[in-house]
Amino acid sequence: MTLATEVKKLTESKPFYAVAGVGDYAVEKLRELPEQLQKLQSRRSELAKELPVRARAYADKAEVLAKDFPEKAREYADQITTRATEVYEDFATRGRKVVSQASGTAALELEEVSEAAEPPVAKPVTPVRKPRTTKAKA
Fold first, then answer.
1. Cα→Cα distances 115→61, 67, 73, 76, 123, Å
2. CA of residue 30 relative to chain centroid, distance
3. Residue 41 has what pLDDT?
4. Could you give phi then psi for residue 119, rounded to 5 degrees?
5. C-alpha span between 93 and 126 (Å, rounded)
6. What DSSP state is assigned to residue 118?
7. How wide is the angle at C-alpha 126 spanned by C-alphas 124 and 128, nearest 5°?
8. pLDDT, tens digit, 9 for 90 and up, residues 71-102
9. CB 26 within 8 A of CB 91
10. Can you tell me the distance from the alpha carbon of 11 to that of 64, in angstroms, rounded to the nearest whole number?
């Protein structure tokens, strides 16, 4: 198979689009990160004061959760399977949009480059006709 055939086969697959969608999502979330870090830093002392109270509450909760763990684990596994399928589909859809947008932009750029690379076409030159002069017969 030619390289072009392999590339076409790859770019038409759902996993390819899902990976593109994941990458786009990651970029979106990374752009939000500085703002979130600022918010957390401003609440740092407040969170530190709440930590011992929250730790005791979670310890009490952990005992209850441990008793129900086997049953809850089956429920969560079913929910996770369903949700993972939904997320995969969402990322594939998002990836299709990103790839089509990027390939459209790339196609326009290639068109611009190819137009710029074309040598200018000369206009046909019409010959200038000189008026005929008749020679005087002597």
1. 68, 71, 61, 57, 17
2. 13
3. 86
4. -70, 150
5. 58
6. S
7. 150
8. 888 898 999 999 999 999 999 998 888 888 87
9. no
10. 49
- Residues 18 and 97 sit within 8 Å (Cβ to Cβ): no
Report how far residue 52's alpha carbon sits from residue 55's, in angstroms, rounded to the nearest whole number: 5
CB proximity list for 24: less than 8 A, separation 6 or greater: 94, 95, 98
Dihedral angle of Cα 28, 31, 35, 41, to the nearest 10 degrees? 100
CA-derived radius of gyration, the chain? 34
Task: Write b or e for each residue in 32-57: b if 16 or more Cβ atoms lie within 10 A of its Cβ, otherwise e.
Answer: eeeeeeeeeeeeeeeeeeeeeeeeee
pLDDT at 116 (0 to 100): 59
Confidence of residue 52 (pLDDT cuts 50, 70, 90): confident
Fill in the amino acid letter for 84: A
The pTM score is: 0.50
Pull the structure tokens for residue 111.
Answer: 């068109």
CA distance 25 to 19: 10
